[in-house]
Amino acid sequence: MSSGWYPSRTARRAGSGPRSTPSSASGSTSWARPTFPCTIAGKTAGEAVLTVRAGTSRRSLPITVTPGPLERLEVIYAHPQTHEQCSNLLDAWERPIIHTSSNAESAVAMRNRPHSGAVVSQMVADLHGVPIILREIQNSPHNITRFVLLRNTPLPAGEGTKCSIIIDPRTDRPGLLHSLLDAFARHGINLTRIESRPSKRGIGSYIFFLDFETSEGWIDAIAELSRLTCVKELGCYGRLE
Fold this sequence. Notes:
The protein has helices at residues 9-13, 80-85, 87-93, 103-111, 122-128, 176-186, 218-226, and strands spanning 17-23, 27-28, 43-51, 55-59, 75-78, 97-99, 116-120, 132-134, 144-151, 162-168, 191-198, 206-213, 230-239. By secondary structure, the protein is of the alpha+beta class. Helix 6 packs antiparallel against helix 7. Strand 1 and strand 2 (27-28) form a beta hairpin. The strands form two sheets. Strands 2-1-9-3-13-10-12-11 form an eight-stranded mixed sheet. It has a five-stranded mixed sheet with strand order 6-5-7-4-8.
């Protein structure tokens, strides 16, 4: 991730920070999946699309980081998303996979256990001082992940080229999704992403995450949609470099 747009630790504590959304290889990442009510705080301030590459880092003895033969590898630590993106090689090795909450946790766990490995990025390997013994192990050479930058205040009006919203219909009826999307079609708004997630209110009840381009008429489309259902605007933003 480019340090040019990644905020400082102070900024992240103040409510600004990046979050990953869809991966081209394995869909949405975990932060985007929970149910968000219409009272969710925070605004999207930018997006970046980055190529994902993973390397396997390992040490063979608890007192050294000198790589040993792969045959001595007994267990591998990996975040579930990382495991999925590198599953072809990892599953072929037939070693136990222990899931962690982050790539950093994988690196730490590996350092504390002999004959173990971890699937991490180059940046994490450098931060934790672990050697890379295999590179480019992801399933797809074209694997990319979209990141969005969140902050407490939105961008000034008119600066964004794309917007994100959450729709919570709170009901279920024939033609519901058609009626919700019709406002975008009639105003000529291009949807770039739509994802449904369970509302946790029962079977058949969903909320919808939508991204769309801010072409002429999008404000009218959102106003019309808001008269039909609960809409939470997550912010408008542009591409970050």
